[in-house]
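User: Quick sanity check before I run a bigger batch. Here is a single chain. Can you write out its predicted 3D structure?
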Amino acid sequence: MAFHVVRIAHRGASVEYPENTLLAYRKAIDYGIDALEADIHLTRDRELVAIHDGTLERTTNGTGRVREHKLSELEALDAGRGEKIPLLAQIFALAAQAPIRLYLEIKGDTEVEYLEVAEAVLSAVQTAGLLRKVILTSFSAPALLRAKALQPGVSTMLDPSPQDGSLTPQEICEQALRAGANSISYDFQILTPPIADEARLNGLALFPWMPNEPEDIRRTLALGITGVMTDRPSVLNQVLRRC
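Assistant: Done. Predicted structure follows.
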């Protein structure tokens, strides 16, 4: 069945399975989604791993900052249900086996860290030959600008800041355009019809994140957006089948 929006599994099927793990990604692929979203950090020994937070406490049985640990230390942790923190290379391997794209969010606690991760992720994408399959995303405009400077052909998506309802539709789009981004990611809870209209007028694709309940998904779809990032891809599929 063809769907009219791009379906992105936010951190995989992350309500049902441990977020940002291979299990969550595989289950999302089983749901037939169009893309996976993964959050990428650098380890102490400069390996790229998928985990949302800059610290380990919330999603693993470890403690401290991701950047303070070597890969071998992170591999010993439990990220839920016995799953491990995956390497970006393992996510690439999943993408090579399915007709999906990857939305890779560049993470960091400082602008220096954002820039380091942007460069490392772009290099890994190019080495893997996956430039056409990957969209780099970030809250950091400088990180996306660095990626574009290194590889003008890379697709990028900005999360404008702050996402608290204080920005006008024009300000949101101006941030994305200044960052050279192709698209915008935005909290569905504060997304309004004027924002969706302004994005269209500026030629920017719009991807709301984390509508997970059927009524929220339906309300988001009614804005005529390009795609949806959800923690519940199976629910998104159910809603779309009824549209």
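The domain at 6-42+91-242 is CATH 3.20.20.190 (TIM Barrel).

User: Great, the batch can go ahead then.
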